[in-house]
Structures are given as C-alpha cells and as structure tokens.
Amino acid sequence: MGPRRLICHHLGHAEAAFEAAARHRRALMLLTPAGAAGYGGPAYFQAMFDRAHATHPAARTICVLDCGDDAAMALFALDSGWQALLLRGHPAARRRVASIARQRGVTLYQAPPPAIDLAFEADPSAAIACALGIG
C-alpha cells in the first residue's frame, strides 16, 4: 500500500504527521492546502516541512506543494527544490511544466489524491492515527 495522505495547513499539523510516521514506521504523503503556493509561497511550506522533518528525521514522507492552476508558481517551486507538485490548470501549460519536472526527476500530479484535510478534523492526532491505520 502506498503512503497515506494528509493535508497539512500549519507546522503543528506537519509535526504531528512526521512524528506519527516516524514512530509507527509508516509512509505518509503530506499535501499543502489547495493553491497554497500562491498564498504562502513555496519557501514557507518547504520551511514548514523541513522543520518538522528535522525534528523527526526517521519519518518517511512525500511532501506535495499544491500550485493550483499557476504554472509560473510551479516553475518557481521547481527552482526552489520541491520534489513533488500538484498543478491543475490549462493542459498545454501543465504539459510544459511536466516536461521540465520530468527532466529534474520531480513528480507532478494534475489532480489532488484523496486525502484527510486536518483543518476539518476536531482531533488531528486521531485523524493521523486513522490515516496510518493505527487508530
């Protein structure tokens, strides 16, 4: 089974997810909220995930930046070192970004995978445990 998927809105979400992934030795896919690259920027979300990873280096995670339909922001995120992006939008623009992403070994998703949005969970830690199949 592939990694479980969670949408992390802030450092608290990311730290809880990394901690649980490390403790239970399970992989997680952590996504930013829809269009997050446009309002928070790639550097903000990269710093958030990097800080959580530094605290829990054993965690196996894939972090995905949601660029909405902004191809220019996706290109900026590629230059910023992101290894997984989500880009909706115009198919021709997405194909151009996908070509560059492939050359750099970056995964580009065109639709968000099903995920638990931690912003809508009364108890994010319980939702993370459930996503990992331990709760």
Question: Share of helix among residues?
Answer: 40-55%
Count up the helices: 6
Mass-distribution shape: globular
CATH superfamily: Aldolase class I
Number of domains as seen in the coordinates:
1
The structural class is alpha/beta
Instruction: Give the strand order, joined by hyphens, for the main sheet.
Output: 5-4-3-2-1-6
Describe the structure.
- This protein starts with a strand and ends with a helix.
- 47% of the residues lie in helices and 18% in strands.
- It has 135 residues and is of the alpha/beta class.
- Helix 1 (11-24) runs parallel beside helix 3 and helix 4 (71-79) runs parallel beside helix 5 (91-104).
- It has a six-stranded parallel β-sheet with strand order 5-4-3-2-1-6, covered by helices on one side.
- The protein is built from six helices and six strands, in the order βαβααβαβαββα.
- The mean pLDDT is 94.
- It has one domain (4-131): Aldolase class I (TIM Barrel), CATH 3.20.20.70.
Name its key features.
135 residues; alpha/beta; TIM Barrel; six-stranded parallel β-sheet
Quick summary of this structure?
The protein has 135 residues and is an alpha/beta fold. Helix content is 47%, strand content 18%.
SSE layout and pairings?
Layout: E1 4-7, H1 11-24, E2 27-31, H2 36-39, H3 42-55, E3 60-66, H4 71-79, E4 84-86, H5 91-104, E5 107-109, E6 116-117, H6 124-131
Parallel strand pairs: 1-2, 1-6, 2-3, 3-4, 4-5
Helix pairs in contact: 1-3, 1-6, 4-5
